[in-house]
């Protein structure tokens, strides 16, 4: 049995765990991160959603997510944002700073939320967008060219243009056209196309097919396939060769923008000397009194005991593996912490209800220091902080706050353990 000793142990490598690790390492702590898998980030759009819709009119997109969160927190003290309100702004700046240091710039809109097109031509509100998606000129564009690729499934330019006309407030004289590019491959996945486009000769073949279709004040939209590791270089190269703005739009998972963010954060953590063990599942814990003294983890058939002063539980919800539903009950899988089940009914009758499903709000309740509490508000284990999707009270699919909550709670936990 291998033994490890660290200041801070983080369990989970989703956005919340990666943020917590970055902030704790920034505070000078020795940090070890273990995770059984990579979490939801690689499946997500790569955008940071803070808050999407109006509280008073849930069918309307909200322009200013911060103002909406202020209103919501005043009414719902048990929402995760209520516990991290004090650091929300600094957590967003910290995130932008470490991403840009690692070659992935994120941008805020001129006011509040970006309204960005999706592959289906719907409009998606989000707060921080990767520079390659932040289509600032779109609302004023005279010409929009939507490009697809022969052989690439799940991206159909005509669907995007037809729906975008109805969903986005475009200038009345804006022309929308489509173009199918042919790179001579029969079937393409987003990842192998992205890899191909990192080769200069392939990118230039693409440029020569687009050039005859360029027009005045044009914006080009395309699926998120502009490079895996060298994304920023591929994008700049394309923009310079064409002389017009080119943007990727969000598409269904798996998503390269989410994977790029994951890679940028992992790269940052390695530079900060954070030890990362992936493919490693926490399977047992030793709790003496109100403290966890050790956890037992298993990876590649080998066991590992880890002693840590502070532990951050970033195991996600049902999808990440942090919570499990069993007949009549929900359990937290690592420490068996109390779970707040907010309703007798776990799901709503209507699948696409604007109220969402109650099970999305199930999770662990915490105090303002992100320590887990029981139904009387008493701290259950003192040296644990809980972050991200396994917190009670948020309904991310409806509120559009998943990555915002993960980012801010991860940052605060990292900051708090840095002070211990
Ligand atoms: C398909 C999809 C798309 C999404 N798109 C968006 C989006 O575009 N914008 C947005 O803002 N939000 C989006 N969300 C929501 C958002 O991604 C999540 O709310 C947020 O990223 C959750 O992060 P997390 O770190 O809490 O958990 P997760 O990302 O779920 O990570 C949990 C981690 O814990 C690990 N783990 C679990 N149990 C153990 C154990 N016992 N031992 C070791 N490791 C363990 C997992 O392997 C994983 O690494 C999306 C979610 C999904 C599912």
From TrEMBL:
Pfam families: FAD_binding_2. Residues 1-24 form the signal peptide. GO terms for cellular component: glycerol-3-phosphate dehydrogenase (FAD) complex. GO terms for molecular function: glycerol-3-phosphate dehydrogenase (quinone) activity. InterPro entries: FAD-dep_OxRdtase_2_FAD-bd (IPR003953), FAD-oxidoreductase_2 (IPR050315), FAD/NAD-bd_sf (IPR036188), G3P_DH_GlpB_su (IPR009158). SUPFAM superfamilies: FAD/NAD(P)-binding domain. Its EC number is 1.1.5.3. It comes from the Bacteria. Residues 7-405 form the FAD-dependent oxidoreductase 2 FAD-binding domain. This is Glycerol 3-phosphate dehydrogenase (Quinone) subunit B. It comes from Desulforamulus reducens (strain ATCC BAA-1160 / DSM 100696 / MI-1) (Desulfotomaculum reducens).
């Amino acid at each position: 049995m291998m033994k490890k000793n660290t200041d801070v142990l983080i369990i989970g490598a989703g956005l919340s765990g990666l943020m917590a690790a970055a902030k704790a390492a920034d505070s000078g702590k020795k940090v070890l991160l273990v995770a059984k898998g990579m979490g939801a980030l690689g499946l997500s759009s790569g955008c940071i959603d803070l808050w999407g819709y109006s509280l008073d009119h849930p069918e309307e997109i909200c322009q200013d997510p911060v103002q909406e969160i202020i209103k919501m927190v005043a009414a719902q003290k048990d929402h995760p944002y209520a516990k991290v309100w004090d650091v929300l702004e600094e957590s967003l700046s910290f995130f932008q700073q470490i991403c840009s240091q690692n070659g992935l710039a994120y941008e805020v809109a001129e006011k509040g939320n970006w309204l960005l097109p999706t592959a289906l031509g719907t409009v998606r509100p989000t707060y921080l967008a990767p520079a390659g998606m932040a289509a600032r000129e779109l609302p004023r564009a005279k010409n929009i060219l939507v490009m697809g690729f022969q052989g690439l499934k799940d991206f159909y330019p005509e669907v995007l243009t037809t729906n975008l006309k109805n969903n986005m407030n475009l200038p009345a004289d804006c022309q929308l056209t489509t173009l199918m590019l042919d790179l001579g491959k029969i079937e393409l996945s987003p990842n192998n196309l992205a890899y191909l486009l990192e080769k200069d000769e392939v990118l230039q073949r693409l440029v020569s097919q687009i050039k005859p279709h360029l027009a005045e004040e044009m914006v080009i939209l395309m699926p998120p396939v502009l490079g895996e590791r060298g994304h920023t270089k591929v994008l700049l190269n394309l923009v310079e060769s064409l002389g017009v703005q080119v943007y990727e739009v969000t598409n269904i998972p798996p998503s390269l923008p989410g994977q790029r963010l994951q890679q940028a954060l992992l790269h940052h953590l390695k530079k900060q000397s954070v030890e990362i063990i992936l493919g490693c599942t926490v399977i047992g814990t030793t709790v003496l009194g109100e403290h966890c003294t050790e956890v037992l983890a298993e990876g590649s058939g080998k066991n590992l005991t880890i002693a840590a002063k502070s532990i951050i539980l970033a195991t996600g919800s049902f999808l990440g593996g942090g919570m499990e539903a069993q007949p009549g009950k929900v359990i937290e899988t690592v420490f068996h912490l109390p779970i707040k089940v907010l309703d007798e009914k776990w799901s709503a009758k209507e699948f696409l209800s604007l109220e969402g499903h109650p099970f999305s709000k199930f999770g662990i309740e915490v105090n303002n220091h992100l320590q887990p509490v029981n139904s009387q508000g008493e701290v259950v284990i003192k040296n644990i902080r809980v972050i991200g999707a396994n917190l009670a009270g948020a309904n991310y699919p409806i509120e559009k706050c998943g990555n915002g909550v993960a980012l801010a709670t991860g940052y605060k936990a990292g900051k708090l353990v840095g002070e211990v």
